[in-house]
Amino acid sequence: MRGEGHVPSPYVEREVNVMNETPKVHPAGETCLVVDFGNSISLEINGQVQALRSYLESKNIQGIMEIMPTYRSLAVYFEPVRSDLDRIKSAISEGLASLGESASIGTKEAVIPVCYGGEHGPDLPSVARHHGITEEEVVARHSGKSCYCYMLGFTPGFSYLGGMDESIATPRLETPRELIPAGSVGIAGKQTGIYPIDSPGGWQLIGRTPLAMYDPSKDPATLLDAGLWVRFRPIDQDEYDEIQAKVRQGSYALEIVEKGEMS
């Protein structure tokens, strides 16, 4: 289960000067171009990724099927028959030239309600023991700091969230679970994330959200997106049940606020 949430060792989350690394464009097969911005994970680099993504999406170029951001690169998928490859390459060059020296990190923050512990967070006690603190303190630290969604992957809509309070960073489980319920919130090293569908996995589960993180009947199908900030809001079982009922009825609206203005 190393593929799930695994960040290769060179990619350490740290501050870097993105201007010291020149973006490189290279093909990945016959239907994709990849723009690499560097070999480090940082808000600055990911801001450049998101800025180029926004630029290309605004151009509405014929033949482009999907634009997929990662921690430090942008993949542009296209249809060879319908696409003008020179136009796509030109647009990428124009976009890179327009980025300037400053990163473009968004300020929108999604508020995700989470019921911590119990059946929803079976690993919360072990995470607390690992750090010699109470379960309540783990919850306070996990929900007390905004996290940044660098990318989606592993399964549809799985959010890789950086910026978690490092004092609760915890290794993955030695033996992954065969089935983790959708909505489960976990910790793996310095990362936290939300399982969007029932799936196997090895992250330490500390809670669960009643929100539907992935719904293929909707457009977009994923509740979160790369470039969005996330703040977890602790709730009890009664509120969990209330929100879950609203989600099933289609009457629950995701709360989006300006970063730092969580109600």
UniProtKB/TrEMBL annotation:
SMART domains xrefs: AHS1
The yes or no answer to whether the keyword ATP-binding is present is: yes
The Carboxyltransferase domain extends over 23-224
InterPro entries (alphabetical): CT_C_D, Cyclophilin-like_dom_sf, PxpB
Q: Which residues form a coiled coil?
A: none
Extract the GO molecular function terms from the UniProt entry: ATP binding; hydrolase activity
Q: Name the keywords, alphabetized.
A: ATP-binding, Hydrolase, Nucleotide-binding
Q: So which domain of life are we looking at?
A: Bacteria
Entry keyword Acyltransferase: no
Database matches in PANTHER family: 5-OXOPROLINASE SUBUNIT B
Listed name of the protein: Sensor histidine kinase inhibitor, KipI family
Origin species = Dethiosulfovibrio salsuginis
